[in-house]
Amino acid sequence: MELIDAVELYFQYLRVEKGVSNETIRNYYYDLKFFFETLDKHTTDDFMPTDIQDFVRIQSKEMLSVPTILRRISSTKNFYLFLEKEHIIDTQLKKFDKPKGAKKLPVCISIEEVEALLDAPNIEKPEGLRDRAMLEVMYSSGLRVSELLGLKINQINFEKGIIKIIGKGSKERHVPIGDYALEYLNKYIEGPRRKNPGRNTGFAFLNRYGMPLSRQYFFLQIKKYAEQAGIKEEISPHTLRHCFATHMLENGAELRAVQEMLGHTNIATTQIYTNISSKRILSAYDLYSKRK
Predict the structure, then answer these.
(1) What is the pLDDT of residues 28-67, one digit of tens each?
(2) Measured by CB atoms within 10 angstroms of the end CB, which terminus of the chain is less buried, N or C?
(3) From 15, 41, 71, 144, active-site residue
(4) Has 15 been annotated as catalytic?
(5) Model pTM?
């Protein structure tokens, strides 16, 4: 079968039976086109069991990024599987090793830098006090950005210092919140928020129009405060969650406890922070050694 006919048949299947968007199909088209050109394929008769194996080897030599290679592998493999299912080809693909990229550790700034970031908002202004409360809560409790922005007042137990979070997969967890965070949270709720047009809504943090804050807005605020604090690292709202976990472990918290507070299903996800802690400790030791 001509490749153009095989691809059209595959895309028709994706549109009608799988409901795949035109944009996704367009991306598949470019991935397959690259594959065909790389291995010089013209018809389905040209397909070989080692095709994807060879494709991976060629792309790796060209120093393409691992995510790009993995995406192209996925697009091509699914195309082959579809053709096999439709009995258009009987090529049994050989097993192949996927390229592995180096794990990138999350950005984590020092405790001093975190304190400078938390001090950056002007708490004399309503939005400044709100932002200070948000930063304090996120660093104190390790919340996800979505959990922070969606936080409702009835989830906060001021008396016990606990926040009830409904996280990923609708899983509920109870997270302790520090005294500083509670203090600024209370100041904001009892102060500027009482005068906000959305004061009768359930959300804790509101913009000037009484609506919950957007992720984009909070991201830009973090960037602004990081610049004011003189932080050189490229950080995002999620950085405070990383810092919460890393600093907890550095100060002797148990891995399981941190896992529960973060809401990680798999402890392996939490273990990445032990790598950050080790890296930071070794870095500090190196600096100390050079000064001796």
Answers:
(1) 898 899 889 989 898 988 888 888 888 888 877 776 667 7
(2) C
(3) 144
(4) no
(5) 0.60
